[in-house]
């Protein structure tokens, strides 16, 4: 894995893939605290609590005000990712410019902060182990490129209509 982490273009491809199609399509929801909260010049009041404090302690208060952000939508923000935000372009992640630092701050495929995905490091370990092995051992040939994909969000993001032929590579006469 250490070798894979030292391949900048591979890392850029992994990040761009997770940006275009994050694993989870649901919102990262947070409860508005007492006193409310201003986000992007819009004030959100704290929720109304119709239950007694004793009853609130026993159940989830569905009347709390919550806000959420969806990684799939946030990753399509042209103000952050550029006018080509809807295109797969791993090069946007290369270099050490302020632009790369900014887009990295908006990378939400695993969430952010204290409630980010606990499996993030394992997922990245698996990607950095699996992708080089697949590319080393197989050739991939996209099929039906003129056909549009359909992307679904049912908690998990997935697509239909993307087909690939996989051919085992023959290296030095051996498989």
Task: Please state roughly what percent of the residues sit in beta strands, choosing from under 5%, 5-15%, 15-25%, 25-35%, 35-45% or over 45%.
Answer: 15-25%
Q: What is the C-alpha radius of gyration, as a whole number of Å?
A: 21 Å
> How are helices and strands ordered from N to C?
HHEEEHEHHHHEEEE
Tell me the span between the first and last alpha carbons: 23 Å
Choose one word for the global shape.
elongated
Annotation, overall tally of beta strands: 8
Average pLDDT for all residues: 84
Short précis:
This protein is 33% helix and 22% strand. It contains seven helices and eight strands; from the N terminus they run H-H-E-E-E-H-E-H-H-H-H-E-E-E-E.
Features:
single chain; 175 residues; alpha+beta; 7 helices
Fold and architecture overview:
- With 175 residues, the protein is α+β, with helices and mostly antiparallel strands.
- It contains 7 helices and 8 strands.
- It has helices at 2-5, 8-20, 53-58, 71-74, 78-81, 98-105, 120-137; strands at residues 27-31, 37-39, 42-44, 66-70, 138-143, 150-154, 156-160, 163-168.
- The protein has a two-stranded antiparallel ribbon. It has a two-stranded antiparallel ribbon with strand order 2-3. Strands 5-8 form a two-stranded antiparallel sheet.
- The protein is elongated, with a radius of gyration of 21 Å.
Describe how the helices and strands are arranged.
Layout: H1 2-5, H2 8-20, E1 27-31, E2 37-39, E3 42-44, H3 53-58, E4 66-70, H4 71-74, H5 78-81, H6 98-105, H7 120-137, E5 138-143, E6 150-154, E7 156-160, E8 163-168
Antiparallel strand pairs: 1-4, 2-3, 5-8, 6-7
